Amino acid sequence: MLEIPEIQQRILHALDSGDSQEVKKVIKKVQLADIAEAICELPITKIIHFFRLLTPQYGAQIIPYLSNACQKKVISGLNAPELKTFIDKMYSDDLVDLLDKLSPRLATKVLAATSPKRRVELNNILRHEEESAGGMMSVNFVQAKEKDTVNKTIKYLRENHKDFEFVNTLFIVDEYGFYKGRLELKTIFFAPSTAKLSEIMDSRQLTVHSRADREQVISIFQKYDISILPVLDDQKKIVGFITVDDVLDGVEEESTEDIAKLAGIRPKDEEFFNISVWKMFKSRILWLISMLVLGTISQILVILFWNAYHVPNVNNVTDGKAFAAVVLFAPMMLILAGIGGISATQSSTVMVRAISINKVHKKDVYKVLGKETLVALWTGLILVVINIIRLILVYLVEFDDVESLALWKAIAVSSITLLLGLVIGNVLATLLPILAKAMKLDPTLACGPLITTLLDIIIVSLLFGFGLAFF
């Protein structure tokens, strides 16, 4: 199996020759997914040149494997007639996946390249919810009537097999179009040529409704250990089918979504490098703000218990190091450590997931660090403002005013610690999984307890260290 750099070199050599046959030789020796990964790292001029040397069939097969950003470059770079040659050869479900990821302008360009018949197929899929069986299904399937003979069916398949995405299974209907069963291709070839399909088909009704949830579809595949599942409408007519490949994609999306929710992140459909810093910021900030505000309850409880335990310097002294350490810093230590741990967990969760599905590599470390640092700075600045406001309110209740210089020093120390803790936490949460992967260790070992423990140590050190400097 060739490595990506070697594939790139072969592609570049073929492009320099300008010979489509050379490009074809490379494609025949390499998996299409690897071809797509290799060309996406080339300059846009090389990518477009590569597609112009491809046959429509190969181009249609490679486009679905491209990253979202690369797909946009290709569609923007190809003119309308060139794009149409590839679009005509793409299967409808691949086109739907492509349209979902494009901007309105590029989606319009793609739709303009499709035939009226193809648009009907696309609408049949797009009218369903993305996370439903209808949104997962393919519509290019072989349908045969139960009264047809084996000989007639084989002849039809030989003449029309290129029009269908999947020919290993035929879906059998009656004269009114109602679904009756399914038939494997191998069964047809070993059956008598005069036998009717109704005599040899599998009539067990294992189907799913087009409105069924994605999780229900996954559950059916797991329970019955099947490779294909027909999708029916309200009239019990077949409208598409779902393969185990579609389910694997669904499982990946479901697990990614669940993992994101567990880490307090609003799930995003885009790949890591296609998500803007602004979207990353929005997906994380809500939980962090909530935890900071709710953490004030912990701070108040500590203060109340300080009073209940008659801790010295709580009510009498409002200055000095002892007062700062016991009364001001100790109660807020829990909050700052918690916020830093949550933020780092969010970053490490995204990073570990991206590494596990092969979306981030060692060479991407600087890009990743840049994005995570910006997200940490943005969230940190917002949280610092909220932290100042909440501490003013807490101190107004606790000390009746905020005129004491010691209180403002405490606010400054906590805000600096909060901002630095977030930045350091996100950087560590990004680097440690990548470092673990480079050392051939499980990236998950570098998150969770490890990262939160490290952040606790760092934030406590920053808080009391800056406290000594200020007091």
TrEMBL record:
<keyword id="KW-0472">Membrane</keyword>
<protein>
    <recommendedName>
        <fullName>Magnesium transporter MgtE</fullName>
    </recommendedName>
</protein>
<feature type="transmembrane region" description="Helical">
    <location>
        <begin position="285"/>
        <end position="306"/>
    </location>
</feature>
<dbReference type="GO" id="GO:0046872">
    <property type="term" value="F:metal ion binding"/>
</dbReference>
<comment type="function">
    <text>Acts as a magnesium transporter.</text>
</comment>
<feature type="transmembrane region" description="Helical">
    <location>
        <begin position="326"/>
        <end position="352"/>
    </location>
</feature>
<dbReference type="Pfam" id="PF00571">
    <property type="entry name" value="CBS"/>
</dbReference>
<feature type="transmembrane region" description="Helical">
    <location>
        <begin position="408"/>
        <end position="435"/>
    </location>
</feature>
<feature type="transmembrane region" description="Helical">
    <location>
        <begin position="373"/>
        <end position="396"/>
    </location>
</feature>
<dbReference type="InterPro" id="IPR036739">
    <property type="entry name" value="SLC41_membr_dom_sf"/>
</dbReference>
<dbReference type="InterPro" id="IPR006669">
    <property type="entry name" value="MgtE_transporter"/>
</dbReference>
<keyword id="KW-0479">Metal-binding</keyword>
<dbReference type="GO" id="GO:0015095">
    <property type="term" value="F:magnesium ion transmembrane transporter activity"/>
</dbReference>
<comment type="similarity">
    <text>Belongs to the SLC41A transporter family.</text>
</comment>
<keyword id="KW-1003">Cell membrane</keyword>
<keyword id="KW-0812">Transmembrane</keyword>
<dbReference type="GO" id="GO:0005886">
    <property type="term" value="C:plasma membrane"/>
</dbReference>
<dbReference type="InterPro" id="IPR006667">
    <property type="entry name" value="SLC41_membr_dom"/>
</dbReference>
<dbReference type="InterPro" id="IPR000644">
    <property type="entry name" value="CBS_dom"/>
</dbReference>
<keyword id="KW-1133">Transmembrane helix</keyword>
<dbReference type="InterPro" id="IPR046342">
    <property type="entry name" value="CBS_dom_sf"/>
</dbReference>
<comment type="subunit">
    <text>Homodimer.</text>
</comment>
<keyword id="KW-0813">Transport</keyword>
<dbReference type="InterPro" id="IPR038076">
    <property type="entry name" value="MgtE_N_sf"/>
</dbReference>
<dbReference type="InterPro" id="IPR006668">
    <property type="entry name" value="Mg_transptr_MgtE_intracell_dom"/>
</dbReference>
<feature type="transmembrane region" description="Helical">
    <location>
        <begin position="447"/>
        <end position="470"/>
    </location>
</feature>
<dbReference type="Pfam" id="PF01769">
    <property type="entry name" value="MgtE"/>
</dbReference>
<keyword id="KW-0460">Magnesium</keyword>
<dbReference type="Pfam" id="PF03448">
    <property type="entry name" value="MgtE_N"/>
</dbReference>
